[in-house]
Amino acid sequence: MDVPGFALITGAASGIGRACAKAFANEGSAGIALLDVNHEALAAVKTEIEGEINERQKGSRGKLCQIEIYPVDVTDEDQVNKVVSDAASKFGRLDYIVNAAGIAMKHEGGAAFAKTADWQRIVDVNLTGTFFVLRAAAQIMLKQEPILSSIDGRPIQRGSIVNFGSIQGVVGITLSTAYTATKHAVIGLTRTASEDYAKDGLRINAICPGYTETPMTTKNPQVLKAMEERVATAVPMQRMGSPKEIADGVLYLAGGRSSFVTGSALMVDGGYTSR
Ligand SMILES: NC(=O)c1ccc[n+]([C@@H]2O[C@H](COP(=O)([O-])OP(=O)(O)OC[C@H]3O[C@@H](n4cnc5c(N)ncnc54)[C@H](O)[C@@H]3O)[C@@H](O)[C@H]2O)c1
């Protein structure tokens, strides 16, 4: 998948972020920095990936993937700046950013009754958190030497940032006022920032997952039941996606195979938004 460099992944302790961490390690990345508010789960993901690498490399002397973990809240500007800069200095550079940290919430009664605190929290994590990480990483990427893609000498890349939109970045879903607004905004942020730096070899794209089986969607049995009914009737493929299937889209957008792609929103949704 052409991701030999160094990746920084937020929301890496669970679901899609965790699948992305494993995917970069499995595809030969030189290092991964994993960020999440949940320190314990983050440490468990690190141990799990190290186990997989050791298993794969038994008897061989292949290159190891350096794994750094950072307990960090993406809504804390100072923490984000510190951690992104620390990861860049430990690795020597940052090639891929995966902005997967996110939270979802339904507002009982819809937009008319959404609480200000709920609105603010979702905006803080999904939109402002994404912006903080993008800004800190872009400042570093713009200063670093570009690397040539390992695929047929394609044009230089200074860095690649993948933000997390959603099907709710392009359509509305009931009772999801704040979440839907933030995911539309993440696509806007992606488009404007991508244009700022397209000529500099810094690519910025969004991935837009459809219904995907992660703790976000499965931990509440009521939410899961409603979702399963919706998936059966509204998703052309009539199933949920797996975190690995989303991670494959992220690998594509991060690495050299998408060298001519910037400012895009890649739908990975079983056909949900194409009808
Ligand atoms: N699962 C889906 O169906 C689906 C669909 C579309 C988009 N998405 C998006 O994909 C991304 C990953 O979602 P997921 O399903 O893997 O969810 P998840 O709940 O399994 O994982 C999200 C991770 O983000 C972390 N996180 C939350 N707030 C944070 C903060 N302030 N700072 C740092 N880390 C924080 C959580 O601790 C958790 O580990 C999110 O942006 C989500 O909106 C998910």
TrEMBL record:
It comes from Coniosporium apollinis. CDD domains: SDR_c. This is 3-oxoacyl-[acyl-carrier protein] reductase. InterPro entries: NAD(P)-bd_dom_sf, Sc_DH/Rdtase_CS, SDR_fam. Keywords: NADP. Belongs to the short-chain dehydrogenases/reductases (SDR) family.
